[in-house]
TrEMBL record:
PANTHER family: INNER MEMBRANE PROTEIN. The chain crosses the membrane at residues 30-52, 72-99, 111-129, 135-152, 159-179, 228-252, 264-284, 304-328, 340-358, 370-390. It comes from the Bacteria. The keyword Transmembrane applies. Keywords: Membrane, Transmembrane, Transmembrane helix. The keyword Membrane applies. Residues 246-407 form the DUF418 domain. Signal peptide: none annotated. This is DUF418 domain-containing protein.
Length: 414
């Protein structure tokens, strides 16, 4: 591989198979483990409460307490958009690494495209059959758009990624700002959102699994393409390009100066947090007006996303080599190796915890109480991931994804 791009010259007799354990970059696994746990923290409200409550505390089934509002504030500053952004960065690095190794075997873009098509199928099944907060569909579509851009130089990927991210941020602020000053700022919009939240709560508390799936298909099929295009173009694709560029520049492989990583890592996290604090305090102090809260949460708060994501990536890359030598760090790396299984498995687990046809806790836990569910799920992920990998080569869904991508059955047992 050269700075100009990927080599597509096939290696003589190269086997058509996925990467072996000894070829893995443990830093990517460790950071991916941190990201997949952080994503659950961000998503937990949308699992156990109406989806609108994820953005807007008044949509909680029971009136939001002071503690619930403080948890929203903490998440807005340190969690929401941050770990999804970090995961997007890692996905960009991952698809470049996969394409690089596939190109060495003479497979290149065709195998990567097939891999993304399989991921898209998983994402759509996840969206309609399990949970509408799916990100796999977005990643698959963004990856397809990114494929021809992976042959660019690392510098071009970085510049285009940052410029696209900034442009997307401006577009989102403009769109939501205009909407917030018009229909979203009206009392009717807030009442419509509350009515929608109540209807959703009734469905998830009293509806059967079949009724929930039917509602997902009938109510959300039309808006899914619009959601995917908007998120891909304004956030996910730019972050993937940045992630691919930083991977090539040595961020995840020890190729950058540790002192510089530490300095820029802390600068990024600090700048990102300080930029988000006054933005998040704006709707918090105003007691969450509907239009303002959505404008801040989905638009303006992203001002601090990129510096914090880059800062986290730098610091975690710096800490990973030493961290994975310890028990807890190795558990995070195992969770990252099984990030696909952990992400989808968490959605299935939360479905059984919250849906009325199962354990039935939907709407019964506020934001503060939901933190207990997060901690329990974290403990489960950090326990079962290394235990599974002791006996098996891949996580269960990672194995299935590989088999479908390569069109053959690989050995699962060690």
């Amino acid at each position: 591989m050269t700075e100009a791009g990927l080599s597509h010259t096939p290696a003589a007799g190269a086997p058509v198979q996925p990467v072996r354990a000894g070829e893995r970059l443990v830093t990517l696994d460790f950071i991916r483990g941190v990201a997949v746990l952080g994503i659950l923290f961000a998503n937990i409200t949308a699992f156990g409460q109406p989806y609108m409550a994820y953005f807007w505390p008044p949509a909680l089934v029971e009136p939001a307490t002071g503690g619930d509002k403080l948890v929203w504030l903490f998440q807005a500053i340190f969690v929401d958009n941050k770990f999804r952004g970090l995961f997007s960065l890692l996905f960009g690095a991952g698809i470049y690494l996969f394409l690089q190794r596939a190109s060495e075997r003479g497979l290149g873009h065709s195998l990567q495209f097939r891999r993304l098509v399989v991921l898209l199928a998983f994402g759509l099944l996840h969206y309609f059959l399990i949970w509408r907060g799916d990100i796999l569909t977005v990643y698959a579509v963004a990856g397809m758009f990114a494929l021809p851009m992976l042959d660019w130089t690392a510098r071009k990927q970085l510049y285009v990624g940052v410029a696209s991210y900034v442009s997307g941020l401006v577009v989102m602020i403009a769109l939501l700002g205009a909407a917030g000053g018009a229909e979203l700022g009206s009392p009717k919009a807030a009442q419509d959102a509350l009515d929608q939240a109540r209807a959703e709560s009734l469905l998830y508390r009293e509806g059967s699994y079949a009724e929930i799936v039917q509602a997902a298909v009938s109510e959300h099929s039309g808006q899914l393409p619009q959601e995917v295009v908007l998120v891909v173009s304004t956030e996910t694709l730019p972050l993937m390009l940045i992630g691919a560029a930083l991977f090539r520049m040595g961020l995840f492989s020890g190729g950058m100066d540790p002192a510089r990583l530490r300095r820029w890592g802390w600068i990024g996290v600090t700048v990102g947090a300080l930029a988000t604090v006054p933005i998040a305090l704006w709707p918090y102090r105003a007691d969450f007006p509907f239009g303002l809260t959505l404008f801040v949460f989905n638009g303006l708060a992203r001002v601090g996303q990129l510096p914090m994501v880059l800062g986290l990536a730098a610091l975690l890359s710096l800490w990973a080599p030493n961290a994975v030598r310890g028990w807890l760090g190795s558990c995070f790396a195992a969770a990252g190796r099984m990030a696909f299984s952990n992400y989808l498995g968490t959605s299935v687990l939360m479905m059984f915890v919250f849906h009325g046809w199962a354990l039935g806790l939907f709407g019964q836990l506020g934001r503060v109480e939901l933190l207990g569910v997060v901690l329990a799920a974290w403990a489960l992920m950090l326990a079962w991931s290394p235990a599974w990998l002791v006996r098996f080569r891949y996580g269960p869904l990672e194995w299935l994804w590989r088999c479908l991508t390569y069109g053959r059955v690989f050995a699962l047992l060690r």
